[in-house]
């Protein structure tokens, strides 16, 4: 990776290590009668990489959306550096929380550089009149934006592909570009939603190094991931979300050793597990389907 | 990424008995026939094609091509040159950087179509083949020979898909006809040409000047066509000629050169457009020029809203109407209830601000929504504007707009003592009323082009494109979607209002019936949108060309009459089926619609 060159300059959104960046208290999200997230507390300090894991449907992405202003939590509040988050996602980004998406959402028909420049939107001010009149301020700001975007592309290792269309990048590079685009808004906290989904081991390792490099720039990182090895290597702290509730939180060893986590992942039913009946039904149906069709489904992709 | 079919001409197994071209003539003979036939067609345009001058254009003269003969001459000359170039004649290689065969096919097809259209038109108009002189027979035979020869040229055949032996006859038929269609298409495609090598910049600028001059000549010729047959012939020749040049790779090279000198190209295009009135001897076609320019300018304004920000606006013509009515009300017209006469600059300001206010009023409540709601609301607004203007006549409502009679006898503009209503003599050229307005309108067009280019390539323009591509992701990048969309909407409305202020003075009268959703005469909302889509969304040249075509075709082809809208609909359906990105595709849009297309910046082999 090209990390060694750029790790020195910390990103402007960074704060002194140890201070709390994100503070979510009692976040509950209900959709009608369904409670997707129930009373979750989570803090992220600067200079920290925090992981969020949990089986499918545990409410990880819903919780993420609560943090980024896409959803407004039914109860509880989310504070970023002491300020309650505004309820609009573009204001959250302006406040300093940037995110990537589980299913990559790049602007496919823009070039790689333009994608990153879009990420600079909140940190620049040139409006319509400035664009039409093109005063000296416009050129200066545009040049600064381009310089910063190019720097970020170098940082994630896409410097040579600045003029390619985003859609033409291979999958792993699209993930990197999404991270560069998020970093362009100079966040104090970066939220990564399954950054290694669909990656091969080499790409996963590269992503790991990239995230460490981002941490070293002073940006706190919160990662959702399925890949256990990846998350336990990477994170200072890991929180486990099961059925919308936080089960355990702690360092890798604590979480790995906790039998409730193992139970949640291996499938031993919890007491009064409301989903057990359905899960059994689904399993039975799957078994029946597998018996009839000999197409053994590849289980490597657990989404 | 690059799904260009690999150059496997399949001469391996079945090549012995299958012909390499579409027609089973040896390739070298075909090439000779195509080139020779085209040359013969050129010669034949100097012969008489018919005996009487009753057929328009007078095709009876020996040694002096007229009317449709000129078109055949141009097509034949192009085909001959392409044919010679495909022989590798020294000095003509620049004509066909992407290979000459497909281009030659298009050129001969165009010549053939024009010549046979002429011959058939003569026979039908005058009643029988007997009216043809030997020259007519010669040109028909020559172009047919050229076409047959060109079709015999080799091309890369697509591999036939194996078919299921259990298929029914109908399925097999579908399969085979699909393959046949793919073969025909392959016969008419060519590779994309390589990059043009760097020339000295004065040469490149000369090339740009030549391209612009050619465009001006073609456009002026199209506007000046005097009868239906000539205009149809013009469309056939221009269409196939453009396709031929496109296949030969010349267009791609020219656009690469213009992309290197964008500012010079834009300025040159305005100079070329400003030359247009000087090419006209009477006001008849200058009038068309003004109307086309108004239509094209409004279409370009709509392109900001639709092409850049992706907001579907079905009532855009209402903003033109707001601007026109605002200008008419303060123009000092006797039928305006206000009875004030503002100077031009103030009237322009009033028109633009009125449109801006209406744009914000319509946009503010609706732009918070996504998707099709906006289209429905703008469609409604367009109709509300027209009906409201109809009703504010003093009986059904307050007396503001004079109802369906409209505001009549709007006085001509007078800018700094220069009366646009009368003729002026400048350097030996007589500049009539419409030419005056043409120049004024050109200034407005320049403003719109400037706004489009500069805002498109800036922070706000990138935000527009991002919103169009993926609104959720754009919001997550910190873009205030509502605000950015409202700016696009308001800018579009203001520019339309600006054009409207001039339109009111050009047409003397503004009535509500000028601002329909769909009608037979442009500009109306449907035609404006069609001009943008037909020309190519998100480009500058696209809407200008689309608007020119959409204005000229109904105007010139009077025989279409009542079937005009039907033909228009059919043409749109066909276009959307075969070229959804428009005539002048935007780089982004082209990729959106043709997944398999070659990317302009092709990936290096690292990904593969």
TrEMBL record, chain A:
Molecular functions (GO terms): ATP binding
Record region (Disordered): 271-303
Record has Transport as a keyword: yes
Domain of life: Bacteria
Low complexity bias locations: 285-296
The UniProt record lists the keyword Nucleotide-binding: yes
Keywords, comma-separated and alphabetical: ATP-binding, Nucleotide-binding, Transport
Annotated ranges, domain ABC transporter: 22-268
Protein name, as recorded: ABC transporter ATP-binding protein
Organism: Streptomyces ardesiacus
From TrEMBL, chain B:
Main location: membrane
Assigned keywords, A-Z: Cell membrane, Membrane, Transmembrane, Transmembrane helix
Transmembrane segments: 32-52, 64-85, 106-124, 136-155, 202-224, 230-250, 262-279, 285-307, 314-332, 344-364, 371-389, 434-452, 486-506, 526-553, 560-578
Keyword Transcription applies: no
Subcellular location: Cell membrane
A Pfam cross-reference name: BPD_transp_2
Superkingdom to which the source organism belongs: Bacteria
Membrane topology (UniProt): Multi-pass membrane protein
PANTHER family (UniProt xref): HIGH-AFFINITY BRANCHED-CHAIN AMINO ACID TRANSPORT PROTEIN BRAE, HIGH-AFFINITY BRANCHED-CHAIN AMINO ACID TRANSPORT SYSTEM PERMEASE
Protein name: Branched-chain amino acid ABC transporter permease
């Amino acid at each position: 990776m090209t990390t060694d060159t750029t790790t020195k300059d910390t990103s402007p959104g960074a704060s002194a290590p140890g201070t709390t960046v994100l503070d979510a208290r009692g976040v509950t999200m209900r959709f009608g009668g369904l409670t997707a997230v129930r009373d979750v507390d989570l803090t992220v300090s600067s200079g920290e990489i925090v992981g969020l894991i949990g089986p499918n449907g545990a409410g990880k992405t819903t919780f993420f959306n609560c943090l980024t202003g896409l959803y407004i939590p039914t109860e509880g509040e989310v504070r970023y550096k002491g300020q309650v988050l505004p309820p609009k996602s573009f204001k959250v980004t302006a406040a300093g929380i940037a995110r990537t998406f589980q299913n990559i959402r790049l602007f496919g028909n823009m070039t790689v550089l333009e994608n990153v420049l879009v990420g600079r939107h909140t940190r620049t001010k040139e409006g319509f009149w400035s664009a039409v009149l093109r005063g000296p301020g416009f050129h200066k700001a545009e040049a600064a934006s381009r310089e910063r975007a190019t720097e970020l592309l170098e940082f994630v290792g896409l410097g040579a592909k600045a003029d390619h269309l985003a859609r033409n990048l291979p999958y792993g590079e699209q993930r990197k570009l999404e991270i560069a685009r998020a970093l362009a808004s100079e966040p104090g906290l970066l939220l990564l939603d399954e950054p290694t989904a669909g990656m091969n081991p080499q790409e996963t390792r590269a992503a790991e190094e990239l995230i460490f490099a981002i941490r070293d720039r002073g940006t706190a990182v919160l990662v959702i991931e399925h890949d256990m090895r990846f998350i336990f290597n990477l994170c200072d702290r890991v929180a486990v979300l099961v059925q919308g509730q936080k089960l355990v939180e702690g360092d890798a060893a604590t979480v790995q050793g906790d039998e409730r986590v193992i139970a949640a992942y291996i499938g031993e039913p919890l007491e009064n597990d409301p989903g057990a009946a359905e899960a059994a039904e689904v399993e039975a149906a799957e078994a029946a389907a597998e018996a009839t069709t000999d197409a053994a489904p590849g289980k490597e992709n657990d989404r | 990424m690059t799904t260009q079919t690999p150059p496997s001409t399949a001469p391996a197994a079945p090549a012995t008995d299958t012909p390499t071209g579409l027609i089973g003539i040896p390739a070298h003979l075909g090439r000779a026939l195509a080139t020779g036939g085209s040359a013969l067609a050129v010669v034949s345009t100097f012969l008489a094609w018919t005996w009487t001058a009753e057929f328009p254009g007078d095709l009876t003269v020996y040694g002096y091509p007229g009317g449709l003969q000129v078109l055949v001459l141009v097509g034949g000359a192009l085909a001959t040159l392409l044919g010679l170039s495909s022989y590798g004649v020294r000095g003509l290689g620049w004509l066909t950087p992407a290979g000459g065969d497909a281009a030659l096919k298009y050129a001969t097809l165009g010549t053939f179509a024009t010549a046979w259209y002429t011959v058939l038109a003569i026979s039908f108009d005058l009643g029988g083949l007997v009216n043809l002189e030997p020259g007519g027979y010669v040109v028909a035979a020559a172009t047919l020979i050229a076409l047959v020869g060109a079709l015999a040229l080799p091309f890369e055949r697509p591999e036939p898909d194996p078919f299921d032996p259990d298929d029914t006859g109908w399925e097999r038929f579908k399969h085979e006809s699909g393959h046949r269609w793919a073969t025909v298409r392959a016969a008419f495609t060519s590779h994309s040409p390589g990059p043009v090598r760097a020339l000295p910049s004065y040469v490149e600028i000369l090339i740009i000047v030549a391209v612009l001059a050619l465009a001006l000549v073609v456009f002026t010729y199209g506007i000046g066509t005097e009868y239906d047959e000539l205009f149809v012939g013009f469309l056939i020749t221009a269409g196939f000629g453009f396709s031929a040049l496109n296949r030969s790779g010349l267009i791609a090279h020219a656009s690469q050169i213009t992309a290197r000198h964008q500012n010079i190209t834009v300025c040159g295009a305005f100079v070329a457009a400003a030359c247009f009135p000087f090419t006209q001897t009477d006001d008849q076609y200058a009038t068309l020029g003004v109307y086309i320019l108004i239509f094209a300018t409004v279409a370009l304004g709509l392109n900001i809203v639709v092409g850049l920000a992706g907001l579907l606006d079905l009532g855009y013509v209402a903003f033109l109407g707001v601007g026109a009515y605002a200008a008419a009300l303060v123009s000092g017209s006797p039928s305006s209830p206000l009875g004030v006469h503002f100077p031009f600059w103030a009237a322009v300001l009033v028109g633009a601000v009125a449109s801006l206010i209406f744009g914000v009023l319509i946009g503010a409540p609706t732009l918070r929504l996504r998707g099709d709601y906006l289209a429905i609301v703008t469609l409604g607004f367009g109709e509300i504007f027209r009906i409201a203007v109809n009703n504010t006549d003093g009986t059904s409502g307050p007396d503001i707009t004079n109802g369906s009679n409209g505001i009549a006898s709007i006085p001509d503009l007078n800018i700094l003592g220069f009366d646009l209503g009368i003729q002026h003599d400048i350097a030996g050229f007589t500049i009539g009323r419409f030419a005056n307005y043409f120049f004024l309108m050109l200034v407005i067009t320049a403003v719109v082009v400037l706004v489009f280019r500069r805002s498109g390539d800036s922070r706000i323009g990138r935000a527009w494109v991002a919103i169009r591509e993926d609104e959720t992701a754009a919001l997550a990048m910190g873009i205030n979607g509502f605000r950015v969309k409202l700016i696009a909407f308001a800018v579009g409305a203001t520019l339309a209002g600006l054009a409207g202020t001039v339109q009111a003075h050009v047409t003397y009268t503004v009535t509500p019936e000028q601002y329909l959703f769909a009608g037979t005469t442009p500009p109306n909302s449907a035609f404006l949108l069609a001009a943008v889509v037909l020309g190519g969304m998100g480009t500058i040249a696209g809407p200008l060309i689309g608007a020119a075509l959409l204005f000229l075709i109904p105007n010139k082809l009077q025989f279409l009459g009542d079937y005009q809208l039907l033909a228009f609909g059919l043409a749109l359906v066909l276009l959307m089926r075969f070229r959804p990105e428009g005539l002048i595709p935007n780089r982004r849009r082209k990729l959106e619609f043709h997944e398999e297309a070659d990317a302009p910046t092709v990936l290096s082999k690292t990904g593969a």
